[in-house]
Amino acid sequence: MENGQLIIRTSNDFSFSENLQYLSRSADECMFHLRDGRVTRAIDVEGEPVLFRIEGHPDGILVTVDGEATEGAKAGVERFVHDWLDLGRNLEPFYELGERDPILRDAVRLHHGLRVVGIPDLFETFVWAILGQQITVSFAYVLKRRFVETFGRAIEADGVTHYLFPSAERVAGLEPEALRGLKIPARKSEYIIGIARLIADGDLTREGLLALGGDRAIEHRLTAIRGIGPWTANYVLMRCLRSPDAYPAADVGLHNALKLVAGMDRKPTLPEVEAFAEPWKGWRAYATFYLWRYLNSEAERV
DNA sequence: GTCCAGGACTCGC
DNA sequence: GCGAGTCATGGA
């Protein structure tokens, strides 16, 4: 094995190709680059940019760290990948309940080994969630790309530009008008800058939120912030704070997936959305993520 | 032109 | 506490 390489061993409930399929869902994704079954991206490790790539390996995931690849950089990348792909999760209980559940069965069989792909950076998660409110995912990707290319740090490697997500400190110093040229709606710009200031001032941290205890306490804290409603709070719980049970019940994509899988001629009402999830308690974030994935794969099939 | 997208806020009651 | 109107952009 080369100097900058390491292998992260994974369980049978992890499929590199399934997660790669999810990561390749948008050509406008700007936080990593895909080619030949490999994912390359830059992250911040203790203030320094580190470029790395991951690919499938018979024993798990092969990680290659670019450049000097100090022990600190390798450890930081390993931590990141572990969090990004939720590698510490034992999915057996979820798959057992999925096999028993008529709504989830096809999704868990078809996408076995998929993880709730995370967004380890708290600020990035908030921005992505706010941008995604009420607009199509494809347009949200366009807005995110403009935002990242304008305010993020760029790293050139092998003719490809990689970006670090803009820091909360950088965005905290902006005025909403600075985002107008990117076609980010004025109100969303206010939300984003407000969150950036909370994070930059140390008033909003991942550790601080997790210390609140359960999902309900965290949701209560988050929805007190301007621009954060129940959907966004649960989205952040799912993608960044790693709750396996977060449930963005108002999600339109979830509604469409339930309509499809349950064979309904209309979208479910909110009480129905809650009722569907009753048997999924403990795993509602995983159920939601699999249903999103299933809806996308069905759409691609047509 | 109308409707819908991975919602949230404000206002009136 | 709850329903209706508003916000902004882009694709079908």
Structure description:
The protein has 302 residues and is an alpha+beta fold. Among the domains are: 5-88, DNA-3-methyladenine glycosylase AlkA, N-terminal domain (TATA-Binding Protein, 2-Layer Sandwich), CATH 3.30.310; 122-239, Endonuclease III, domain 1 (Orthogonal Bundle). The chain is 48% helix and 13% strand. It contains 14 helices and seven strands. The protein has helices spanning 16-23, 71-84, 92-100, 105-110, 122-132, 137-151, 168-172, 186-200, 206-210, 215-223, 230-239, 252-262, 270-277, 284-301; strands at residues 5-9, 33-35, 38-45, 48-57, 60-65, 154-157, 160-163. The strands form two sheets. A five-stranded antiparallel sheet has the order 1-5-4-3-2. The protein has a two-stranded antiparallel ribbon with strand order 6-7. Strand 4 and strand 5 form a beta hairpin. Helix 5 packs across helix 11. The longest helix is centred in the C-terminal third of the chain and has 18 residues, at 284-301. The chain is globular, with a radius of gyration of 19 Å. The protein binds a DNA duplex (13 and 12 nucleotides) through helix 5, helix 6, helix 8, helix 11 and helix 12.
